[in-house]
Amino acid sequence: MGFRVCVNSINNFIKKPDDIPFSISTWEKFKYLISGVIYDFIIAFIFVILISILEPLMTPYENVLNSKLYSFWMSILLITILPPLLEEFIFRFPLKYERNYIFRFIAYLFKTDFSGFWKKHLRVIVYLFSATFGFIHLSNYNNVDVVFFMLAPIIVGAQLFAGIIFSFFRLKLGFVWALFGHFSHNFILIMMSFLFFHNVEQNLVDDDNVKIEATGIAFKVDKQERLNIDSLQDGNILCLDAQNYSLQKLIDELYLADTLKIRDNDQLNLKLFSKKEEGYSKNQLLEVLKEHYTFKKVTDSISKNE
User: Fold this and answer.
1) Is 18 helix (H, G, I), strand (E, B) or coil?
2) Which residues are CB-neighbours of 114 under 8 A, at least 6 positions away?
3) Quick one: which of 119, 124, 129, 115 has its CA closest to 160?
4) Among 249, 194, 195, which residue's Cα sits nearest to residue 71?
5) What is the 3-state secondary structure of 222-262?
6) Domain ranges within the chain, ordered by starting residue
7) pLDDT of 47 strictly over 90
8) How many CB atoms lie within 10 A of CB 108?
9) Which range scores top for mean pLDDT: 27-31, 70-74, 110-114, 233-237?
10) What is the 3-state secondary structure (H, E, C) of 53-94?
11) Which residue in 274, 224, 273 sits closest to 244, CA to CA?
């Protein structure tokens, strides 16, 4: 049983969900788990592309999760373990009528049996639970408007599809497999963040005038922050060395804090070395930062020292 067979089964479930579990071995369930997670990330990547295309419209919307920095192991606990446990018990565990104790309690109060209704409308129920799971992630954003809600299906498109995938795991493989699927999904996100963003060096500029290097810090590290700036009388920078430093805090040090706000809580190591005796102006540095980082609000500002 290969990836294509597994994806076809998932697509058939998406078209018409049912709660008839597969009578297959644990190894075959594991294949479904791996295939489902891969399929999930393929679709998620498509939504990432869509969001990148719509970046000019997405700029104002800040994901509050990006404003907090945790250690690697704390991130594993707070992102990989606890949320899947809570969300799977809320959104996937009750998909089986015999495990939906709230619905069965209502049926008990009214002295009736809703199992037939549940089975008849399972397709709608799965869609509703998956949609609720996806759209609840909109709560991660606090600066919403009409355009935000118009873009909502794209913003949480990956979560909407993941909700369907986890529902497939729950109903066709078992609740434990839905947990494993959700754990795997979030763990992969953590590892991608670690591999692609944490301690990854990037040359922002390296020309005849200046060399600027930045190293991203995706996880909290046990290292004191440090900022050293060597400036000329006119405010131009000869050398700058920021270690384990908040980009917003650096911006506040160099510019008017009430006019320049970083959208995400970027933590980094930043080094600037001017190759010219006249130094590198703060306005030039600002233009470089605007090319590589997202500002919530950018106006023509004047440096404190200019």
Assistant:
1) coil
2) 97, 103, 104, 106, 107
3) 129
4) 194
5) CCCCEEEEEECCCCCEEEEEEEEEEHHHHHHHHCCCCCCEE
6) 3-196, 201-297
7) yes
8) 12
9) 27-31
10) HCHHHHCCCCEHHHHCCCCHHHHHHHHHHHHHHHHHHHHCHH
11) 224
Residues 6+ apart with CB under 8 A from 226: 241, 242, 243, 244, 245
Q: What is the pTM of this model?
A: 0.88
Residues contacting residue 237 through CB under 8 Å, at least 6 positions apart: 229, 230, 231, 272, 274, 279, 280, 281, 282, 285
Closest CA to 195 of 214, 173, 219, 228: 219
Coil/strand/helix, residue 141 = strand
Average pLDDT over residues 156-164: 97
Burial class (CB within 10 angstroms; exposed 0-12, middle 13-18, buried 19+) of 239: middle
pLDDT tens-digit map of 195-250: 988 999 999 999 999 999 999 999 998 889 999 999 998 889 999 999 999 999 99
CB contact at 8 A, 24 and 9: no
Q: Distance (Å, rounded) from C-alpha 192 to C-alpha 265?
A: 18
Contact 173, 189 (CB under 8 A): no
Please identify which residue in the block is written with the tokens 């590198």: 280
Give every CB contact of residue 33 below 8 A, 6+ residues apart in sequence: 169, 173, 177, 180, 181, 184
CB crowding 198-225: b at 16 or more within 10 Å, else e: eeeeeebbeeeebbbbbbbbbbeeeeee
